[in-house]
Hints:
The protein has 534 residues and is α+β, with helices and mostly antiparallel strands. Strands 8-9-10-1-11-23-12 form a 7-stranded mixed sheet. Strands 19-18-20-13-21 form a 5-stranded mixed sheet, with helices on both faces.
Amino acid sequence: MKRILSLASAVTATLAIAACTPASGGGDAGPPQPGGTLRYGLSQAPTCSDPAQAGTNQTLYVTRQIVDSLTDQNPATGEITPWLATSWQVSPDAKSFTFHLRPDVTFSDGTPLTATSVQKNFDAIAHTLTTAKAPLGASYLAGYAGTTVIDPLTADIRFDAPNAQFLQASSTPQLGILADVTTAKPAEQRCLGDDIGSGPFVYAGYRQDISATLARRPGYRWGSAVFAHPGEAYLDRIEFTVVPEAGVRTGSLSSNQLDAVSDALPQDVPQLEATGAEVQFASNPGVPFGLQPNLSRAPLSDAAVRQALLHGIDRTQLVDTVLGPQFLPATGALASKTPGYVDLSNSIGYDPEQARHLLDNAGWAPGGDGIRVKDGRRLSFGVLFSTAFAANRATLELVQQQLRSIGVDLRLELAAAGEYTARQNAGDFDTTYYNTTRADGDILRTTFGRGQRNLNQREPIAALDRALADQLSTTDPAARGALVAAAQRSVIDNGLWLPTIELSQAIGRSAAVHDLRFEASARLQFHDTWLSTR
């Protein structure tokens, strides 16, 4: 793919970004006006039309609109609030979660939402889709023992071990509730664009890798408590088109061919602002972007190398050079917006002299070309990455330069989405580069737990494994927060994650787009969005 962001031009481009708008824009233009079609340019194709199988932001921008969840999460406070469920109880041992459903909800095929619907959704994720097709949703249901239908509007979800994270997980689109006609299908048939949910929009068209069209759901009246209003969406339709080239997206927005676009980049801001458009930002919670080392491979099996790398990355330079001031340097194992986040910047601060000292003491001596050598082996390794975020290549190219200055050779290995996932699953990488979004500290378990994907290919680490397990066992916020804090420190102390930058969503939108909002996990929610006259 053509490189989207030039290191040489990015420094100048970042200077123009300071005037960009915050996470909810265009909300002061008077009372909302119903009607109209919003034309949206995605930077990547959705991977599947099924919310349960969705992983990328571009996929979730589409799939979130057709599905409601049992609960919602307030993006400002982190509080779990009612949605399809009006109330719930959590057992003291965090093994049982009882949800009481609204009585007036229907799916877009006319069938009612019942406790059996909840049962069939979670059974399908746990037993049909599994981690192979729904890695996030299945991880939220780890230890799922089944759902008991107490009465038509009461469902009790049970786990065979404590699972305190599940209440927050019930707010995610991956655990959104779909109609029986959808949950009865095999995984592949749930990716064809005919999924049935209870959300404010329905699929009106879906062409894989090209476009997706959503239409307003008539009669919708059970919006989340977080929504600005509970009734029908204002927009008549949303037309999502895949536009992978950043310059084409910017040009289309500037020329009024699109109303909003993903991944607006710093150098595009002047052109957008000249036409009256703006850029909205929202920082993603969860695990920030970073390199995850495969500990089964040399040289990343050497703990001293991993610690040296932590101090060899200048994260502030990454932000200042590649991204701009609306992005943040990563400061630990969690992004700063995540509930329970701990600032570990002192443990990963840029200190190239400390990095060189660690490598010297570990026996890695500078070679003739500046790359260190030990026992005849160069200090060289690859990083597997994709273009899921437009600035990934430029970010890693600068990391490559930074690490070379301490005697480390970083090889960039760009892979298409399918190859990227296949190589991750096979453990065919030295390091792999990505981020994971979730507004809950349990994202550490799904990213670093040995019982999950274990991309680190690590052996047991007693302190980390204990913290990850114990945070599932307590419903006391302070006690759970302390365990999540301990897990963050252990991840960094053991060099399991080499953080770079925190992801922010950067959405370019025309002046005609109002109340374009982000949910707690920084994914777009179009329910309250409306259009004024173009």
